[in-house]
Amino acid sequence: GSDAFCTIKWDGRIVRGVHEREELNIPADIALADQVPDISVLGSTEKGADIMQLIKNAPLEPLIIMDFTRRRKKLSFEGNIIELALDRGTISTVRNQAPILELELEHYAGKDPFAVLALGEVLAAKYGLTLQKRSKYARGLELLSSGLYQPRPSS
Fold this sequence. Notes:
The protein is of the alpha+beta class. The chain contains 3 helices and 7 strands. A hairpin with a 4-residue loop joins strand 6 and strand 7. The longest helix is centred in the last third of the chain and has 13 residues. It is globular, with a radius of gyration of 18 Å.
């Protein structure tokens, strides 16, 4: 099916090549014609309520749109549960677009969160994969800045 989510990510850091951050994904109704989600769903969480307080009633513009299909599979590896997520689609801004084709590994359970690196090395060697250190969001920001985006003046 087609699902849309409002996502909040915060307190990110990278440790030995593994991204660690808090993340909240909330299903959202979306008007496909204009790609503007109903962000009121964020108000049901503490971080979301803080964001809603900052935004107040200001209109939002979609600056970076991630449109991708995700296929997931959880597997056991060296005593850990790791999710493999295959993402295929596009990152779009007002002037640029780039493809998404990536296999994301996420540690779900077990004592060693760095097991994702070991599994990544196995998969890279077997299938010729390369490590992408930039997140989809970081790549979207690069597209946005290279497009010389000019926000609309406030009314």
